[in-house]
Design goal:
The complex is a heterodimer. In chain A, 23% of the residues lie in helices and 28% in strands. Chain A is built from 5 helices and 12 strands. Chain A has helices at 13-21, 49-58, 62-71, 81-85, 190-202; strands spanning 2-5, 26-29, 40-43, 76-79, 104-108, 120-124, 127-128, 144-148, 150-154, 160-166, 168-176, 179-182. An 8-stranded mixed beta sheet of chain A has the order 2-1-3-4-12-11-10-7. In chain A, strand 11 and strand 12 form a beta hairpin. Chain A is globular. Chain B is α/β, with parallel strands linked by helices. In chain B, helix 2 (64-73) packs parallel to helix 3 (87-96) and helix 8 (209-218) packs parallel to helix 10. Chain B is globular. Chain B starts with 5 loop residues before the first strand and ends with a helix. The chains are: A alpha/beta, B alpha/beta.
Chain lengths: 205, 254
């Protein structure tokens, strides 16, 4: 069963309602007990890194998320802030530990060119660095929707699944075995983008 | 690489119905928001903005029940606004499926609300919307409560303050041009984009593709939003949900 993590600060409805329409079964999880029978996890997120990690600790699900992602190797998809939460930490909340399930850090965009506004908001393209089942049947000529001020820097290039150019080539999605992250919002990137979520939900990894 | 300029239909709500006026007045009912959203979704617009224009005046907040219904039809991001003055309301609207919230009147009465909101949810989902009207000296005054109350603070000072407080985007609206479809106030937009380091959404007056193109050419606006242009057709303003074509999009981005 696919579990969608509800932190209360993320808009999970935009994901689960559309999955429902595509006849995908899911369960909304927000406590350690809820994770029973969960075989895939989506961690959506908008908002502030520190607040979201606090919420994860308040809900007492840090340990179980890490265990499912690293020991049980359950397919795990972090979306937007959800992808950043998979890293060790973020410049948005110095001193706050992320889940640390990918070897990466989250840092803030910084440009001298004033025409490159921050946050990076809008439709941009992703360029895959290697084949990835999560992008099957997705038209990559079409752009996807980004809205973020921080981005993920992976220790190892092989964990970077795609790159996007905005002032710099930054990591717009990650893949490390069972772990996936998307800095953009597939659920807000028209039907073409939502295909990514559907792929994650149906593919056997 | 610069981002493709965004083009955003704006839908005005009065409670549950969709309305459209001219210069913030004479609003007429134009239909059901859910149907409009379904059509815009099929047209694959970049984003949508929903503003409940009587919420602040009636001391209420845009209905999260309606937002939930709209979100279910939306495969793209959208911003909602109308009477938002508490963090709990933002939480409710984001939970209902909105990507961003637009804050206008409450930011003018308490600018620290922007800071509180962006600290809680991140700057990227806090849009500060500013309605301005030209004064007889050629300058601009900010108005709150859907253009009914004149504010004292100077426009450019306010823009700097809201940036410092953590606004993620600015939605700048010309009351004089709104609904007229005669073109955007390019000087106004340029004055804002010149001093801002966050994305600016320009609105008020767009009536055709050339208006959009000149706004992007002559200012550093990241997006143009428009109402009438995308909900009306022809001189008689018959209701017809429409959007620019793929070719027109390319022309704008050139």
């Amino acid at each position: 069963m696919l579990g969608i993590v509800n932190l209360g600060v993320n808009n999970i409805r935009s994901i689960y309602y559309k999955l429902e329409k595509s006849k995908v079964e899911y369960k909304i999880v927000s406590s350690p007990e809820d994770f029973k029978g969960i075989s895939k996890i989506i961690l959506p997120g908008v908002g502030n890194f520190g607040k979201a990690m606090n919420r994860i600790d308040e809900l007492n699900i840090r340990e179980i998320l890490v265990d499912f992602a690293t020991n049980k190797k359950i397919p795990f998809l972090g979306i937007c802030l959800g992808m950043q939460l998979m890293t060790r930490g973020s410049e948005e909340a110095p001193g706050v530990n992320g889940l640390g399930i990918v070897d990466a850090d989250t840092i803030k965009f910084s440009f001298e060119d004033n025409s490159l506004k921050i946050p990076h908001v809008g439709w941009n393209n992703i360029i895959l660095t290697h084949e990835n089942p999560i992008y099957s049947n997705v038209n990559l000529d079409k752009s996807v929707y980004f809205t973020h001020s921080f981005y993920v820097v992976c220790d190892r290039d092989e964990d970077v699944a795609s790159k996007t150019n905005y002032g710099i080539d930054f990591c717009s999605s990650i893949r490390k075995y069972n772990l996936f992250g998307a800095q953009f919002h597939p659920e807000k990137s028209h039907r073409n983008g939502f295909q990514i979520v559907e792929n994650f939900a149906v593919i056997i990894f | 690489m610069k981002l493709k300029p965004r083009v955003i239909p704006t839908l005005l709500l009065k409670g549950k119905g969709l309305v459209k006026g001219i210069q913030f007045k004479n609003h007429t009912y134009i239909g059901d928001p859910i149907n409009a959203v379904k059509l815009f979704n099929d047209l694959e617009v970049d984003e949508l903005i929903f503003l409940d224009i009587t919420a602040s005046i009636e001391k209420r907040t845009i209905s999260s029940v309606i937002i939930e219904q709209l979100a279910d039809e939306c495969f793209m991001p959208f911003t909602v606004g109308g009477g938002i003055n508490k963090v709990s309301q933002i939480e409710e609207l984001l939970y209902a499926g909105a990507e961003k919230v637009s804050i206008n009147t409450s930011a003018l009465s308490n600018v620290d609300f922007i800071k509180e909101a962006s600290n809680n949810f991140g700057s990227q989902c806090i849009v500060v919307s500013i309605d301005v009207k030209k004064n007889i000296f050629g300058g601009y005054n900010i108005y709150s409560y859907s253009g009914t109350i004149k504010e004292k603070i100077s426009l450019l000072d306010y823009v700097k303050i809201i940036q410092d407080k953590g606004a993620g985007e600015i939605l700048i609206n010309s009351i004089n041009n709104e609904g007229t479809q005669t073109g955007l106030d390019l000087l106004l937009i340029k004055s804002i984009t010149d001093i801002s380091n966050i994305p600016v959404i320009a609105t008020g007056g767009a009536g055709n593709i050339n208006h959009l193109t000149e706004a992007f050419k002559q200012s550093k606006a990241s997006a143009v939003a428009a109402g009438s242009m995308f909900v009306f057709h022809g001189k008689k303003r018959g209701v017809l949900i429409n959007f620019i074509s793929e070719q027109e999009r390319k022309r704008i981005a050139e």
